Amino acid sequence: MTRSAEKEKATQAARQLLTKFSVKSVPVPLERIVKALGIRVEYAPLDGELSGLVYVREGLPIVGINTLHAPNRQRFTLAHELAHVQLHGPELENAVHVDRGSLRRDAISAAGTDPIEIEANTFAAELLMPQDLLLAILDGRSIDLEDDEAVAGLAKRFRVSEAAMRFRLDSLGGAG
Ligand SMILES: [Zn+2]
């Protein structure tokens, strides 16, 4: 598949989940969704550069989240690992998938080069900052990405990091 086809597939997968769980407002109830899908989440302090990991043991998906990172970053990581469960299940049967990254990993979001990471970040961005809900809140306004207060307000509403929101606004063209 082409890069944009992969992203489209990931976006559609996130939208299907939002529809399945009747999500019509933010913040998106990520933990409830993950739990309802039968995924076990373990929160623990992990090595600094690790953001999270995911594997499947006897059919049970298990996600680990680094509690040393900021709560909104942990939330993005959880959405990212959920993406791997939804999109890359078979690959998780053979080996533990470990996500590392700089502190700005969620900010650079879909800028990575590994296709499955791009898909996972694309899925996570759509799941936590659904395009239709974000555009409804913006209601035709454009947000100046230099306006820290406006970006912070939106980030808080969606429970994501300001960096993730800034990247999302930029990629949706909802910024002016
Ligand atoms: Zn990953």
TrEMBL record:
Domain of life: Bacteria
UniProt xrefs under Pfam families: Peptidase_M78
Domain IrrE N-terminal-like, first and last residues per copy: 35-169
PANTHER family listed in its UniProt record: ANTITOXIN HIGA1 (PTHR43236), BLL0069 PROTEIN (PTHR43236:SF2)
Protein name stated in the entry: IrrE N-terminal-like domain-containing protein
